[in-house]
Amino acid sequence: MVVEDYGDDLLEATTSISRLTRMLRRGKLSDRACAEAGITLDRIGLQILGLVRKAERPLSVKELAEAMQVEGPHATRQVQRLVGRGLLEKTVDPGDRRVARLSPTPEGVELIDRYHAVIKNWMREAVAGWPAEDRQQVCRLVTRWVDDIEAYFDELDTQPFPGTSIGT
Q1: Where's the HTH marR-type domain (predicted)?
Q2: Please, what is the end-to-end C-alpha distance for the chain in angstroms?
Q3: For the whole model, what pTM was predicted?
């Protein structure tokens, strides 16, 4: 049985995904999208609002900080700023009154949806010359690929590091 080695292709695709991520996180691009959407919010604010908007339920500040891969106090300061602007609202967790849950306000939803609409429009324009089938296939395969890699890495995170035991 011959096993195909596609490691180089996957590494190249991973590098391309990283390039795309860097492009989407560039300050200039974010500033341009905000200007086109008619909003004033920095990248961190956009990230928080996007994460809270996308969440299937109200997030705690701890969950938000973990998703952003930042320390809790940093997330707390940013959240307070967005609450102050009326873009997020805090509610008390009914299961643990010490925990605040975050939800976007209607104004926050409208703002982040406007921002995302600009980005989505640019993405559509960038591949407008592609056949519809190619666009659909790329979207389907990239999503499947990232989901599978994420599941694999999540499983890997549960395993001990090589040369160590679980208790160390």
Answers
A1: 10-147
A2: 40
A3: 0.78
The pLDDT assigned to 78 comes to 92
Q: What is the pLDDT of residues 98-116, one digit of tens each?
A: 888 999 999 999 999 999 9
DSSP the chain: -PPP--HHHHHHHHHHHHHHHHHHH-HHHHHHHHHHHT----HHHHHHHHHHHH-SSPEEHHHHHHHHTS-HHHHHHHHHHHHHTTSEEEEEETTEEEEEEEEE-HHHHHHHHHHHHHHHHHHHHHTTTS-HHHHHHHHHHHHHHHHHHHHHHHHHHTSPPTT--TT-
What domains sit in the chain, N to C, each tagged with a CATH number?
27-129 (1.10.10.10)
User: pLDDT by residue (tens digit) across 9-42?
Assistant: 888 888 888 898 888 777 788 899 999 999 999 8
